[in-house]
Amino acid sequence: MQDRERILGADHTASLNARRNRGMASAVRGQRRRARSVLTDVLADYIRMLGEAHPYTASGRSSLERLPSLHEFPP
Description:
Layout lengths: L1 H7 L4 H16 L3 H19 L4 H12 L9
């Protein structure tokens, strides 16, 4: 992820998506506080860079809304 940000820039969609994936991975590991922080920051950056109506923004918003259940797996 650091190489991606260094080469493409922190605001590039690939960098933003990598940060979102990191937030999702934190959530699955049960690190809710870290996940919420990362996903909240990424959502703000999606809105700033892509606007409210962009599909990546919607996906980022959905990830944040699903955060409470992301660490739970079906039996």
